[in-house]
């Protein structure tokens, strides 16, 4: 690779991926996840960590092979993030242990106090109804809640991960709904392109499968209620889809300035060629009916990469299995890909791991890079009843084909749309 090739057509440093880490309900690490994903094995099952008798949705893609006590979203998110980052940093072989030579960008779920902690705080305040400021002061004076203090401050997870891996500068916590993981990668890419850092640790993590989250999403009619069999509930782009299934986990990518990575002899696993985003203020949960923001985000990612729609080999879809999202994504792909829309293979990892929310964009970017490296497109399971209104080439069984460039879509509630172009070689 020549010195000139380390910069793209816009004279920006190329961004290489040198480490990948994964934790999902399919397993821990790249090997276990990839084997399960390409075999079409589902990680969605009946929830066992808390009672679900009174809930409409009783299934999720939970990570049950790691310790999940106490059941608090920030702690679970931190645990998953740390496991994924350990694998990514080790594979990259970058820096000494605990001395990562770059910035941290981490997508974490919105931090709120969950019901058990709220109840305990209310009881300790001596007020069973509304908790007053004086009551909270009285509860705090007991010092009983000191261990919880850091669990409910947005940014705590980032600070702990930064301390553990020795990242440089102020860690960046972000939350852009279901596109958060992709946004974390985008911020890392942009920082390297601006020359602010030569390396970035980008993480998306989420441990939000708890009773309150299930109830909230259920009230929005967003979750599937097809509890039996659990592995058949998430069916992206199928006519009989009825909602998404919650999942959890994390992915971490080590990004580097390609020139610096090459100089230190790193193995380059792929490149982040382009990033595109478009805000949509149409509704807090619904997509704009004309699909314009989705189309704009996809086109922006291609323009940023210096590519055209003809350069896309496959699409790692957002594909949540909700009636509206799948329809809008299909409209957006048709608008951008044109006559190729029915011939470009499309897959949704959420059919097997569920919707990992804040982590989804990072996990799916990691799977996209593995697709490129292995030349194998994972299937979308449960696509037994195709939706005639979605004329896409949905990959029903793992497909062995050369893949050079993947479009990975992430669309979130509130109109957060982020798309990434991952590639085997520089554009």
Automatic annotation (TrEMBL):
This is 3-oxoacyl-[acyl-carrier-protein] synthase 2. Residues 12-424 form the Ketosynthase family 3 (KS3) domain. Gene3D superfamilies: 3.40.47.10. Pfam families: ketoacyl-synt, Ketoacyl-synt_C. The keyword Transferase applies. GO terms for molecular function: 3-oxoacyl-[acyl-carrier-protein] synthase activity. GO terms for biological process: fatty acid biosynthetic process. One of its GO terms (cellular component) is cytosol. Keywords: Transferase. Belongs to the thiolase-like superfamily. Beta-ketoacyl-ACP synthases family. InterPro entries: Beta-ketoacyl_synthase, Ketoacyl_synth_AS, Ketoacyl_synth_C, Ketoacyl_synth_N, PKS_Beta-ketoAc_synthase_dom, Thiolase-like. PANTHER family: 3-OXOACYL-[ACYL-CARRIER-PROTEIN] SYNTHASE, MITOCHONDRIAL (PTHR11712:SF336), POLYKETIDE SYNTHASE-RELATED (PTHR11712). Pathway: Lipid metabolism; fatty acid biosynthesis. The keyword Phosphoprotein does not apply.
């Amino acid at each position: 690779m020549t010195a000139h090739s380390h910069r793209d057509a816009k004279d920006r440093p190329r961004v290489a991926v040198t480490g990948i880490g994964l934790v999902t309900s399919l397993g821990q690490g790249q090997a276990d996840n990839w084997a399960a994903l390409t075999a079409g094995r589902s990680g969605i099952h009946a929830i066992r960590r808390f009672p679900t008798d009174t809930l409409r949705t009783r299934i999720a893609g939970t990570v049950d092979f790691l310790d999940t006590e106490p059941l608090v979203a920030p702690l679970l998110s931190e645990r998953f993030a740390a496991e994924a980052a350990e694998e990514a940093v080790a594979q990259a072989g970058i820096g000494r242990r605990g001395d990562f030579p770059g910035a941290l960008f981490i997508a974490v779920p919105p931090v709120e106090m969950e019901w058990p902690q709220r109840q305990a705080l209310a009881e300790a305040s001596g007020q069973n109804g509304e908790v007053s400021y004086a009551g909270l002061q009285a509860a705090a004076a007991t010092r009983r809640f000191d261990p919880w203090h850091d669990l409910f401050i947005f940014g705590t997870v980032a600070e702990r991960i930064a301390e553990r891996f020795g990242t440089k500068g102020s860690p960046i916590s972000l939350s852009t709904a279901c596109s958060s993981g992709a946004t974390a990668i985008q911020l890392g890419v942009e920082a390297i392109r601006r020359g602010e850092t030569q390396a970035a640790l980008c993480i998306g993590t989420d441990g939000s499968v708890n009773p309150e989250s299930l109830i909230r999403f259920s009230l929005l009619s967003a979750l599937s209620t097809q509890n039996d069999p659990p592995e058949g509930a998430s069916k992206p782009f199928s006519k009989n889809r009825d909602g998404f299934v919650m999942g959890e986990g994390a992915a971490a990518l080590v990004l580097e300035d390609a020139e610096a990575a090459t100089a230190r002899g790193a193995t380059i696993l792929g490149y982040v060629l382009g990033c595109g985003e478009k805000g949509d203020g149409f509704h807090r949960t619904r997509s704009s009916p004309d699909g314009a923001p989705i189309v704009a985000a996809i086109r922006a990612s291609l323009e940023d990469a210096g590519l055209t729609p003809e350069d896309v080999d496959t699409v790692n879809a957002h594909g949540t299995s909700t009636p509206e999202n799948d329809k809008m994504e299909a409209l957006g792909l048709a608008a951008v890909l044109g006559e190729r829309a029915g011939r470009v293979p499309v897959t949704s990892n959420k059919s097997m791991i569920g919707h990992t929310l804040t982590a989804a964009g990072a996990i799916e970017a990691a799977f996209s890079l593995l697709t490129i490296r292995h030349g194998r497109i994972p299937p979308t399971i449960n696509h037994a009843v195709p939706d005639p209104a979605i004329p896409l080439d949905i990959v029903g069984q793992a497909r062995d084909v050369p893949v050079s460039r993947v479009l990975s879509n992430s669309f979130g509630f509130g109109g957060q749309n982020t798309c990434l172009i991952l590639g085997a070689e520089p554009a």
